[in-house]
Amino acid sequence: MYSCIVFDVDGTIIDTEKAVLSSLQKVLKIETGRNYTFDELSFALGIPGTVALERLNVTHIEQVNKRWNEYLKEFFHYVRVFPGLEETIKELHSLGITTGIVTSKTKTELINDFYPFGLNDYLPYTICADDTEKHKPNPEPLLKFLKIAEVSPSEVLYIGDTYYDMQCAQSANIDFALALWGAKKVERFQPTYQFESPKEIFEVVNR
Questions:
Q1: Does the predicted model carry a pTM greater than 0.85?
Q2: 80 near 54, Cβ under 8 Å?
Q3: Are 105 and 134 a contacting pair, CB within 8 Å?
Q4: Sign of the alpha-carbon torsion through 31, 33, 34, 37
Q5: How far is C-alpha 14 from the geometric centre of its chain's CA atoms?
Q6: Is 57 left (phi over 0), alpha (psi -120 to 50) or beta?
Q7: Distance between CA 159 and CA 180 in Å, rounded?
Q8: CA pair distance 198, 173, nearest whole angstrom
Q9: pLDDT tens across 71-112, in order?
Q10: Is the peptide bond before 137 cis (omega within 30 degrees of 0)?
Q11: Dihedrals phi, psi of 155, to nearest 5 degrees
């Protein structure tokens, strides 16, 4: 069915929720003096950090975002690849399936947070937040992916964990699969597929 599988990163390939929200809590406590809960900050998962800080009415966004990324390193021990994803990505690559990522991370964040796991060589096509003017849920990141990978929307399945991911895919006329291992409040989604395990991806790819 699909000859190209595209992944989101945070919440889809790697579990970064605790690290991202803990470091955001810390920087906001220092900048604003306020203690935010994870529930109050969960909206920040899946969008660029600068956008999240803007919504929190933070001043000096670029400086605070840089500090947030520094604090993230303190919590990096919480970050892990979701079970089954490493094997799945490597097998897709070996089958000749076109693979890549479309993420709200900047290139620097991707290098710092994702490259240490050694999967980037198996995901040759990459669109980061600084590759496009508009970001998820706007379709521009996926539309740019189509261009650089030279694939058509009907060939592509985008796998993500947030409502922003689904909106981005649907606006680009690309089928969307919800990664249940990372998704929250799944009742609000209307995906093409819901995957409980990464191995289910093989049921829909062209072998």
A1: yes
A2: no
A3: no
A4: positive
A5: 9
A6: left
A7: 10
A8: 23
A9: 999 999 999 999 999 999 999 999 999 999 999 999 999 999
A10: yes
A11: -85, -10
Chain Cα centroid distance, residue 152: 21
38 contact partners, CB below 8 Å, separation of at least 6: 21, 25
Length of the chain: 207
| Integer Cα distance of 113 and 102 in angstroms | 15
28 and 55 Cβ atoms separated by less than 8 Å? no
CB neighbours (10 Å) of residue 92?
Answer: 21
User: 167 is written with which tokens?
Assistant: 């909106």
- Phi first, then psi, for residue 99 (nearest 5°) are -130, 155
Three-class DSSP labels, the chain:
CECEEEECCECCCEECHHHHHHHHHHHHHHHHCCCCCHHHHHHHCCCCHHHHHHHCCCCCHHHHHHHHHHHHHHHHHHCEECCCHHHHHHHHHHCCCEEEEECCCCHHHHHHHCHHHCCHHHCCEEECHHHCCCCCCCCHHHHHHHHHHCCCHHHEEEEECCHHHHHHHHHCCCEEEEECCCCCCHHHCCCCEEECCHHHHHHCECC
What are the pLDDT digits (tens) for 138-174?
999 999 999 999 999 999 999 999 999 999 999 999 9
Q: What is the mean pLDDT of the chain?
A: 95
Query: Structural domain boundaries of the chain?
Result: 4-15+80-203, 17-78
Instruction: Mention the CATH class of domain 4-15+80-203.
Output: alpha beta
Sign of the four-CA dihedral 70, 72, 76, 79: negative
Token pair recorded at residue 17: 């929720």
